[in-house]
Design a protein that fits this description.
Strand content: 15-25%
Shape: globular
Radius of gyration: 30 Å
Distance between the termini: 56 Å
Number of strands: 22
CATH class of the largest domain: Alpha Beta
Mean pLDDT: 89
CATH superfamily of the largest domain: DNA ligase/mRNA capping enzyme
Bound molecules: 2-(butylsulfanyl)adenosine
Structural class: alpha+beta
Number of helices: 25
CATH topology of the largest domain: D-amino Acid Aminotransferase, Chain A, domain 1
Number of domains: 5
Strand order of the largest sheet: 2-13-10-3-9
Largest sheet: 5 strands, mixed
Helix content: 25-40%
Length: 670
């Protein structure tokens, strides 16, 4: 190959840098990549090798310069050109309207006031200084006057342009923004930390701060940090008249501005959007702790000024935090209706996101030990949306004398030896006569398949303890008089409960099948069985081979189902329920719905944050999709929540699409 002239090399370097920068921008700022990772890697590799051959031609804004600086001993203190202030907060409509009133009074004019609202990112404020368009310094906020110089680390964040886009850049410009770690990155980071047996990061903000203050920038580079840019500090020569124009200007010059920023004409609209966001915040892949509200006009901002470096033209509408620390008092065990041992955490009551929390779910022994939590520890708990709180991990070192958690060897209810079937994460009580199964079957029935209004877990527990209801038929024999003897029941409430129980006799056949607690019969199998056999009698008479003809049922499951229907006690139960008026005939509602998802099959695995699995299943079915229990080549997609099991691995192995919760929401929206 002919050696290239210096000019050719320079030309190729320029081309490669431009292309690599373009793709970094598409990927990290716009979130719209144009090329595959492999194609990007090819360009990047060519650029690094060419630079290795010509080290004299390396420029500070070359994309290869994002990592590579030697680890620094400590961070230099640097002074911001203009101070980085902070925000006064409002916590409700009343204080928000009071602020708006104050703004109006101070402006003392009839001119309307428009506002810009932006998510308040729970990360770490930084200031980026650009000189003639080149990033020359990046610093943390520090005390607002002086911060720490973390330039080398900030350069590893690919959403931060090393050189801003556009011609004629200002001589000096400070860009302000919030560096953050996406929730997905936070979870992955903690998984990696857990594998190394180190202390987990308590929340994404701490993890982002820790990542940015690494002495070795290659560690920062390995963390998927990103940035939302929200304003300007010192700037020279820009002709802008509103904050909204500032944001547009930043976007046009290659900076990542938050797409949820909105310009609103009235404080009433602002209040409404703040309420919307309190619910909507959990749909984002990053944590926000409020909404920032800014008076849009820069002229009005100047009139309003600041008090103790808190601008009078802005407020943070803050919500109660969604994470909290509390003591893990005990890890208790509940034996489910299938015999699975479900551990759960008893917590010292604590306020999280405005709700008192005293319980949290724990999935299984592995989950508890992976999270490294022990009875007696102070733990971090997190609430997302309206779902049951989760324990993130310990808040600090273990308390003295604590021991790692072990599942009991014997069932806490019946004393049978606990088993852990191979390949399963759950421990089980193998005793079919274990009392827990009876009570849990009842609780499951009233909350799940029959969904009886006003009859919930608490009532079922009381009825069980008083030995008034020990089986499903007992529930349908319960009288108003019996309920009236219980504390808290009056004529009306007792009548309502009895009516609701009576009404639940209309529960469709497939749901009745589900409520019977037949081994391995979930929602999907129950529906397929109902559709295939059409009645309880035909199902009860079916042979194992005939059951195996049903879609999705293999030999083992067919055997277990046939066995269940050959058991005398079970047949008596079916007869009794039938006699009491429950449905054992398939109705028209058991037929699948026609909809936009007709013809597709989904499998749900892991824990979803915003829905129960049942809700997700119902939502998909309402759109015409089929929801299956196991993954096959025919599966359209696997919806994977947190801690997905072997189904996810199977999907990956078969090349079946894997969807996250956001994609599920998209499907449900249609
Ligand atoms: S504007 C004068 N906009 O909130 C300060 N701040 O207490 C103007 N923050 O330290 C700040 N998202 O780290 C602004 N969209 C946003 C923000 C935001 C997060 C943080 C920032 C600042 C703190 C204010």
């Amino acid at each position: 190959m002919a050696t290239r002239t210096q000019k050719d090399v320079q030309k190729r370097l320029d081309e490669l840098r431009e292309e690599v920068n373009h793709h970094l921008y598409r990927y990290h700022v716009l979130d719209e990549p144009e090329v595959s990772d492999a194609e990007y890697d090819r360009l990047y590799d060519e650029l690094t090798s060419l630079e290795e051959e010509h080290p004299d031609l390396i420029t500070p804004d070359s994309p290869t310069q994002r990592v590579g600086a030697p680890p620094s001993e400590r961070f230099q203190k640097v002074e911001h050109l203009t101070p980085m202030g902070s925000l006064e907060k409002v916590t409700d409509d009343e204080s928000l309207f009071k602020w708006a009133e104050d703004v109006r009074k101070r402006l003392d004019s009839d001119e309307p006031v428009a506002y810009v609202i932006e998510p308040k990112i729970d990360g770490l404020a930084v200031s980026l200084t650009y000189e003639d368009g080149l990033l020359t310094r990046g610093a943390t906020r520090g005390d607002g006057i002086q911060g720490e110089d973390v330039t080398v680390n900030l350069k590893t964040i690919k959403a931060i342009p090393l050189r801003m886009q556009g011609d004629g850049p200002p001589a000096v410009l400070e860009v302000r923004g919030e560096v953050y770690l996406p929730l997905s990155g936070f979870r992955e980071l903690n998984e990696r930390i857990a594998e190394l047996g180190q202390k987990l990061a308590p929340n994404p903000r701490n993890a982002a701060a820790g990542s940015l203050r690494q002495k070795d920038s290659s560690i920062t580079a390995s963390r998927p940090l990103s940035i939302w840019v929200y304003g300007l500090g010192a700037h020279e020569g820009l002709q802008l008249s509103s904050h909204w124009e500032e944001l547009e200007w930043l976007r046009e010059h290659g900076f990542r501005t938050n797409p949820f920023a909105e310009r609103l004409e009235s404080i009433e609209e602002v209040a409404k959007r703040c309420r919307d966001w309190e619910r909507g915040r959990t749909e984002l892949d990053y944590e926000i702790d409020g909404i920032v509200i800014k008076v849009d006009s820069l002229e009005q901002q100047a009139i309003l000024g600041a008090l103790h470096s808190r601008p009078r033209w802005a407020r943070a509408f803050k919500w109660a935090p969604m994470t909290a620390q509390t003591k893990l008092l005990k890890i208790a065990i509940r034996v489910g209706r299938t015999g699975a041992l479900n551990p759960w955490a008893m917590l010292e009551p604590v306020q999280v996101g405005g709700v008192t929390v005293s319980k949290a779910t724990l999935h299984n022994e592995e989950d508890i030990n992976r999270k490294d939590i022990r009875e007696g520890d102070v733990v971090i708990i997190q609430r997302a949306g309206d779902v049951i709180p989760q324990i993130v991990g310990p808040a600090g070192p273990h308390a003295k004398g604590t021991k790692p958690f072990r599942m009991p060897k014997k069932c806490p209810l019946c004393g049978a030896n606990i088993v852990k079937p191979k390949g399963e994460a759950m421990h089980r009580c193998p005793n079919r006569a274990c009392p827990s199964r009876g009570l849990e079957t009842l609780i499951n029935w009233v909350q799940g398949p029959a969904d009886i209004e006003g009859v919930g877990e608490q009532l079922m527990r009381r009825l069980w303890e008083l030995e008034l209801v020990r089986s499903l038929p007992d529930l349908y024999r319960l009288s108003k008089e019996q309920l009236l003897e219980l504390d808290g029941f009056q004529e009306k409430s007792a009548s309502n409960a009895i009516d609701a129980i009576e009404h639940s006799k209309r529960t469709p056949f497939s749901r009745v099948l589900l409520g019977l607690n037949i081994p391995d019969v979930g929602w999907v199998t129950a529906q397929n069985l109902a559709r295939h056999f059409g009645s309880g009698d035909r199902l009860a008479q079916a042979s194992q081979e005939e059951i195996q003809d049903v879609e999705g049922i293999g030999p083992e499951r067919a055997e277990a189902i046939a066995e269940w229907f050959s058991d005398k006690d079970n047949l008596r139960l079916v007869e009794e329920l039938k006699g009491l008026g429950l449905r054992f005939e398939a109705g028209p509602e058991e037929r699948p719905v026609e909809g936009p998802l007709t013809g597709s099959t989904y499998v749900i695995t892991g824990t979803l944050e915003g829905f129960s699995r049942d809700e997700a299943r119902k939502g998909l079915e309402a759109k015409g999709a089929r929801v299956a229990d196991s993954v096959s080549k025919k599966t359209t997609g696997v919806i994977a929540g947190e801690s997905p099991g072997s189904k996810l691995a199977k999907a990956e192995q078969l090349g079946v699409a894997v969807l996250d919760e956001a994609a599920l929401k998209g499907l449900l929206r249609g």
